[in-house]
Every structure is written in structure tokens, then in C-alpha cells.
Amino acid sequence: MKVALVNPFWTYEDSIYFGCRQPHLPLELGYSKALLEADGHKVLMLDGQIQKLDNAALADRVAAFAPAMTVVSTAPTYLFWRCAPPELRVPAEFLNCLAGRGGRTVAVGPHGSATPAPTLRKLGVDVVVRGECEEIVAELARRDDWSAVPHTAHLHEGKLVGNGGVHASSFVGHPALKWPSDWIAAHSHHHHRFDDNQVGFGAEVEASRGCPYNCSFCAKIDFRDAYRRRNHDAVMAEIDRLIGQGVGYIYFIDEIFLPQKALLEALVDRNVKFGVQTRIDLWKPELLELLGAAGCVSIEAGLESLTVEGRAMLAKRCRLGTEELAALLVNARRHVPFVQANLIGVVEDDPALVDHWRKHLIDRGVWANEPVPLYPYPSSPSYREIWGEPDDLAWERAHEHYLASFRTFSDIQEKRPRALAELEATCCSH
């Protein structure tokens, strides 16, 4: 079978989107491609941002390939499934341009995972995959009859038909990914890196998936939930291939980059820098020293709140006090050029106390951002604590709540985001 895998051309005007707007490798499509090709399928993989192709041009490329199945992602990359644009206008625009020229259509991503019915209706695809997608995409390619493929949903006479819950990939045995050299050459961005020594291309790698914690704000319930660690040899083979293609910086997209001594020791001898997102309370001083020696130049530490009460409200399950956390962050800064304490706006936090601790950290070289508002994504515990299980209006409800709750938004948003219905009005017309 011929299969097209498409990461559309993303635009973010008037969106609440919190993620980075630079191109990043579409790891979910890379894994899917590897599994499909292992089964003997012919695969065309496209990325609108990396290849500088708008959605009309992407649709024409797909049509020329004449696939039996076209897969489109509803979030920019696996890196940002947890903070995806709520609106579906971009994948809808691609599918409207494709206009039936790509065989049967499949949507993968956080939207179909949490809210399959409205995703199907807005996009007009034949099937959505629920949860982590790579094995399910491969299974769809094996079958002529899609009606019983597990972890999928479709519409029959306008009503939702689902086949099981969300899928959790085995992940552990995923092969080392191979990226076209021209894609790597187009990836100059070093995600979450802020020092002045940016040499080589950038790339994203996934060494582990999922997180053993259940913080209230984290949108991971329907995908990348249970913690799994990928085969070490595959991770290192992938990194070595990237280094051979001129990559000088890797960003590990792991939800939580837990201390992996074997991985860090292997990176010590390789000419590559890297960034991670982690919890600082899980690192001992000697492991922070090894992290720096291995080449880490950027730590995004999910502190979220600078008070015990705020961390409890966010269900952080953190046993350390603020002074101990601050000391660990300052210690990490001794070994790593950029360390950030991520902060979320929490009503329990006293603004004066937050200002005190922010100044304390910044004066010692650790960046602590202005607390940003919390968006209740449908796949987060916070959404379900307020409204229960997501229904067909979950994204609209979360969006309206967010817009009504805050006057100032994250620093990447230049103006007030628009309502979800306005964002989707021109494209989601199926």
C-alpha cells in the first residue's frame, strides 16, 4: 500500500498556542513511517514547516503520490501534543485542499484522542486514532476493513462508533529514526536553548515516554501517560546518525527526563549538546554534575509553583520545600548554562512571596518566568475535576473558560486569542 504521512503547514495567528512556533521533527510520523516500511508499504512523509510547503502544495504532493491512505496530525509534533493548538483549522485546511485525492483519511493527535466525535465532524476524515498512533497507523494499513481496528473511532450515520479506548504504544522497542538530510539541514532551530554557542543543526529525540506523576495541569491522560524507557541502543544509534548529519544540539522531548546514568555516560563522549524538561526534585547533586558533563545546556524544570500550597493544589507530589528546590536549581546552574523554573499562575500563591523567590532565583542565574495562566486541556486532570469526562464541546468549553478567566496571557501571545468558533469558522466546515 502507498501511505502519505503529513504534518501540515502550521500557522498560529490569534491562537492561544503555548508551544514553540519553529519547525520540529514530527516524531510520531517518523515512527509510523518506520513501522509501515517494515511491513513493506511505500511511504511519503511530508512536513509543511520543515519543507516550506503550504497546505495547498502539500495536498498537491500527496495527490501526485496517489496514496491509498493519508494520515494527518492535529498537533505540530509529539513534543507539543500536551499543549496543542485547540483549533483544528490547520489540518482542516490541508484536508480541504486535498479534497478526496488522498485515499482514505486518518487523523492522529490529541484532539481525536480526547474528543473523537467533534474531531471527525470538523475534519471529515474517515477515522481518528485514539491515543499514541504509530502501531495503529500500521494496523490500518494492514486491513481493508477498518470498522474493527482497535483504538480508532469513526462516524456511522452521524453517530460515533468507537473501538476500544486510547492506545499506549509499546514504545520500548521503537527503532532508531532516519531523517532526510535536507530536513536536518532545514532545522537550524535549537529548541529551548539560550546560550551563545549554537553550533550545528537542531533535532528532537525521545528517550522515554510518559510520566509517573499526575499533575493537575498536564494534558497527558489520553496519550503518553504510563512511563516507558526506550531501548538504549536504539536511542544512541539515532543520536549518532543525527550527529553524522551535522546535528549539534538535541532536545529530548520526554515528558519527564528522569536520570538515566547509562544515557548520560554515553553522551559524555559525543560531540553534541542537549536540552531536557524534568523535575529538579528527582536529581541528586552528583547526577546534576554528570548531566552537565554529558553536554546538557538547557534545563526546563517543571516547578510550577513557588509555594508548598501551590504545588499541593497542582498535585505535584513534591516532598521538598521551596528552599530545597531553589538550592537544587542553583546547583544545577553551576553545571548547565541555562536553567529555568517553569511557573504557572496559581491562586494559592501569594504574589509577594512569588516575587521574592523569583528574584532569589534570577539573582543566582536561574530564570523563573512570570507565572502563566493555566489552560484546562481536555486531557488534563484539571479539566475533568471541573467538568468531568470530555464531551463534544470540551475544547470550546476549555477555551471559553480560559478567555473569561484571564486578562493577560503567555508572553508569546501578542494579542488576545480569538474564540475557538471564530478560529475554525473558515476551514472546519465538514
Describe this structure in words.
- The protein has helices at 27-38, 48-51, 55-65, 89-98, 110-114, 116-123, 134-142, 181-185, 232-244, 261-268, 285-293, 308-313, 322-333, 351-363, 381-387, 394-405, 420-424, and strands at 2-7, 42-47, 69-73, 104-108, 127-129, 152-156, 159-163, 201-205, 208-209, 228-229, 247-252, 273-278, 296-304, 338-343, 367-368.
- By secondary structure, the protein is α/β, with parallel strands linked by helices.
- It contains 17 helices and 15 strands.
- Helix content is 35%, strand content 17%.
- Strands 2-1-3-4-5-6-7 form a 7-stranded mixed beta sheet, sandwiched between helices. The chain has a 6-stranded parallel beta sheet with strand order 8-11-12-13-14-15.
